[in-house]
């Protein structure tokens, strides 16, 4: 089985044309702006500040507290712990380029995303849609961690797939939904996944599996 996964994820870089300098800069930009640790903040910020009814009735102070806690537990705390792991030489690179380093990255984010979901589901002012998303994000990390045993799954694709599936599921029940619920997430996923391929960080197989696992996790979370 290991040999089969290795063959599927083998990347014939020598057969690919070298991307231009400008294209690589754009790829780095999209990879950073839509980093997997940032997408949760974007989604919760959309629900809190842009959606007309998701957090209706919640006062401004509570909204600020909710987005602040989201930033802390889904971005800052995981990033700080991974940085400390790098400084302590528990991981070799901050970008977690190899499967061994990603074990640490997945375990760290798994804990903080579980905590986020657990807190959200016990707060009366947090709507079910935000709880569903938090659970789906946690399940996606669990799925990515399991896949990482066999091959280097794309974390960016994992998050992008979850983003697309969440807005599709949400849009099917949201009276304020529009075509943007599908168009914008798919556009983001296209930019992100293309960027990872341009930078030769992943093979198409690793991208497709990441998209599938992320989407599946959000769909399962929506059922609960």
Q: Which whole number gives the mean pLDDT? A: 90
Q: What series of H and E elements makes up the topology?
A: HHHHHHHHH
* Global morphology: globular
Portion of residues within helices: over 70%
Please tell me the total number of domains.
1
Q: Please tally the helical runs, counting DSSP H or I stretches of 4 or more residues.
A: 9
Q: What is the number of beta strands?
A: 0
Given as residue ranges, the uncertain stretches (5+ residues, pLDDT < 50) are 1-15
Question: β content, as a range?
Answer: under 5%
**First-last Cα distance:** 33 Å
Structural features, described:
The protein has 224 residues and is mainly alpha-helical. The chain has one domain. Helix content is 72%, strand content 0%. It is built from nine helices and no strands. The chain is globular, with a radius of gyration of 18 Å. The N terminus is likely disordered.
Features:
9 helices; 224 residues; globular; mainly alpha
Question: What topology does this entry show?
Answer:
Blueprint: H1 2-8, H2 21-33, H3 36-50, H4 60-87, H5 99-120, H6 128-147, H7 155-171, H8 180-198, H9 204-223
Helix pairs in contact: 2-8, 3-4, 3-6, 3-7, 4-5, 5-6, 6-7, 6-9, 7-8, 7-9
């Amino acid at each position: 089985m290991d040999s089969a996964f290795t063959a599927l994820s083998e990347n014939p870089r020598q057969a690919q044309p070298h991307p231009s300098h400008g294209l690589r800069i754009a790829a780095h930009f999209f990879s950073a702006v839509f980093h997997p640790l940032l997408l949760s903040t974007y989604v919760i910020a959309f629900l809190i500040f842009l959606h007309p009814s998701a957090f209706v009735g919640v006062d401004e102070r509570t909204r600020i507290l909710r987005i602040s806690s989201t930033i802390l537990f889904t971005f800052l705390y995981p990033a700080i712990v991974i940085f400390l792991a790098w400084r302590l030489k528990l991981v070799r690179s901050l970008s977690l380029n190899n499967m061994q380093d990603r074990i640490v990255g997945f375990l760290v984010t798994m804990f903080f995303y579980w905590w986020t979901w657990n807190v959200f589901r016990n707060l009366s002012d947090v709507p079910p849609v935000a709880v569903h998303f938090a659970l789906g994000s946690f399940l996606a990390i669990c799925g990515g961690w399991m896949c990482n045993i066999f091959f280097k799954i794309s974390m960016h694709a994992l998050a992008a797939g979850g983003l697309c599936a969440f807005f599709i599921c949400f849009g099917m029940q949201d009276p304020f939904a529009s075509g943007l619920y599908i168009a914008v997430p798919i556009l983001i996923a296209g930019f992100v996944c293309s960027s990872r391929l341009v930078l030769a960080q992943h093979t198409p197989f690793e991208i497709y599996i990441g998209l599938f696992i992320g989407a599946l996790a959000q769909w399962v979370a929506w059922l609960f």
